[in-house]
Design brief:
Two copies of one chain form a homodimer. Chain A is of the alpha+beta class. In chain A, 35% of the residues lie in helices and 37% in strands. The first copy, chain A, has a three-stranded antiparallel β-sheet with strand order 2-1-3. At the A-B interface, β1, α1, β2 and α2 of A face β1, α1, β2 and α2 of B.
Chain lengths: 81, 81
């Protein structure tokens, strides 16, 4: 199973990296861009063949290591393969 | 429209950050984890209301700024809202 963990800054937390990207896009002429937020994607190959188990393992990993709950939120998506 | 650009290291490129995360997960007792790859997620708020336009703009931004095609590949997903 493949688990995709997406870690984003919480909505109520400032994201200076996102602001920098937004400014860079504006200077490149992309006037259409509003708010930008930058996060991490972690793709994990898991030995288990159960989607439920893969999800609970990936969530445990996100809570323990991949995300900092004070400033970040995460989502887990499970994919076959 | 909201565009989610996911930038990952190309499959044929080494990912030392992913390796480090895999090792850290193993030391935390997650024996089930195989390969790990770490990439970026960029969430862009776009003023346009056309999904096709949002996609082509986000792809242009990824090519120009967000991804380095030598070592990275990207995917664009368009969301309403």
């Amino acid at each position: 199973m493949k688990a995709v963990v997406t870690v984003m800054p919480r909505d109520d937390v400032l994201d200076p990296q996102g602001k920098a990207v937004a400014q860079a896009l504006h200077s490149l002429g992309f006037a259409d861009v509003g708010d930008v937020r930058v996060g991490k994607t972690i793709v994990l190959e898991l030995a288990t063949t159960s989607a439920a188990e893969a999800r609970s393992e990936a969530e445990a990993m996100a809570r323990k290591l991949l995300a900092n709950p004070v400033i970040e939120q995460f989502e887990v998506e499970i994919k076959d393969a």
